[in-house]
Design brief:
Blueprint: H1 3-6, H2 20-28, H3 30-33, H4 58-61, E1 71-75, H5 81-89, E2 94-98, H6 102-115, E3 120-123, H7 127-133, E4 139-145, H8 163-172, E5 173-183, H9 188-197, E6 202-204, H10 210-213, H11 223-228, E7 235-241
Parallel strand pairs: 1-2, 1-4, 2-3, 4-5
Antiparallel strand pairs: 5-7, 6-7
């Protein structure tokens, strides 16, 4: 598969050179936590990902038994702070985190090792590949937090929060499952409202402005937010699968 076609929704794969300890985690810990696709993903000519007939065995992925608290998916976990926090506070849940940026993956592995959690699994490529291989109604929660806004109009087709991806999430999420979105980009908020909050499969849970301006108690801040969002006003959208 051509690399250019694999990178339709995310940017660079690597940043500065990894430290020896980070590389060691990639070599030793990541293979034990990595999500393996049951079949090679199929990317269409226009960059979409076709649903796979071979599905991920979630029980096998999490040690032989489906997690009692369900399976959660985080698209683009960055440095992994939110993912690991959720894994720590919900030990009965199995979490799948997707992040193509290898430096972020290395940071996440360090958090996992430090916290000692065993219920997180990582996929180091386009989240749509995992989504194409998950069984229907297998997710009880999904997170898309601070995705790349692709601010230029000609790049809007690369935004993750779009009808096609939302249709896939709707197929993967069980009834009453929760979808959480967050952005600090002023142009992405109305886009999210238009595409996600008005999607027929999802019900926006906000009843007043404070419901999306205030951070829920179980929604921890990350180093990215503390460093990069100074002076910005992020919004937090919660939706329920109808």
């Amino acid at each position: 598969m051509e690399e250019a076609r694999r990178r339709t929704l995310h940017g660079r794969r690597r940043g500065k050179k990894l430290r020896a300890g980070q590389q060691s985690l990639l070599d030793t810990l990541l293979p034990r936590l990595a999500v393996t696709l049951p079949a090679e993903p199929v990317v269409t000519a226009d960059g979409d990902v076709s649903e796979s007939t071979a599905k991920i065995d979630l029980a096998r992925l999490f040690g032989g038994v489906l997690p009692a608290g369900g399976v959660w998916l985080e698209v683009g976990f960055g440095g992994g702070e939110h993912l690991v926090w959720q894994a720590e506070h919900h030990p009965d849940v199995g979490l799948i985190g997707c992040e193509p940026y290898i430096n972020g993956v290395a940071k996440c592995l360090a958090h996992i090792e430090r916290a000692g959690v065993s219920n997180a699994r990582l996929f180091t490529d386009d989240a749509r590949f995992v989504m194409a291989a998950l069984p229907p109604q297998s997710l009880s929660r999904a997170f898309v937090l601070f995705p790349d806004p692709w601010p230029k109009t000609r790049h809007h087709k690369r935004r993750f929060v779009a009808r096609g991806n939302l249709d896939v999430l709707a197929r993967l999420m069980c009834p009453d499952a929760e979808l959480r979105l967050a952005t600090d980009d002023p142009s992405y908020l109305p886009w999210m409202v238009e595409h996600a909050c008005r999607h027929p499969a999802f019900e926006w849970l906000a009843e007043r402005p404070g419901d999306w301006r205030a951070r829920p108690d179980d929604w921890p801040s990350t180093r990215y937010e503390q460093k990069m969002l100074a002076g910005h006003k992020p919004v937090f959208l919660r939706l329920r699968r109808r």
